[in-house]
Amino acid sequence: MKLDIKVKRIYEPPSLGDGQRVLIDRVWPRGVRKEDAALTLWLKTVAPSDELRKWFGHEPTRWMEFQQRYRGELDRNSDAVGQLRALLDNGRVTLLYGAQDDVHNNAVALADYLSLKG
User: Fold this and answer.
1) How far apart, in whole angstroms, are the C-alpha atoms of residue 103 and residue 100?
2) What does pTM read for this prediction?
3) For the CA atoms of the chain, what is the radius of gyration?
4) CA of residue 27 relative to chain centroid, distance
5) What would the mean pLDDT of 73-86 be, rounded to a whole number?
6) Angle at CA of residue 17, ends 39 and 19, nearest 5°
7) Are 47 and 53 in contact (CB under 8 A)?
8) What's the gap between Cα 29 and its chain centre?
9) Among 58, 50, 42, which residue's Cα sits nearest to residue 103?
């Protein structure tokens, strides 16, 4: 079964097609009011560790290694990953992130991880 995962910047307005909206950043995004975010869940525990996030620094040249390291963290974080899988059992989940880069960010890496692991 193909998982129904979307990835979206939290600065984009919520839409009906988002399904369950899950913020997956460890830090609340600057300038976003909680009441405007329309979140189902803020799952900080699935975000990359502070150490990994700081090392990555959104440098595209570090993207491949970031993904590998983040997957390792996710493999050791079955509780948070399990929460996302449970949400996905109920339909579409939109993973929300605050980064400016829409290609090299933790939401893209997490969506790939979830899709690969089924």
Assistant:
1) 9
2) 0.95
3) 13
4) 12
5) 97
6) 40
7) yes
8) 13
9) 58
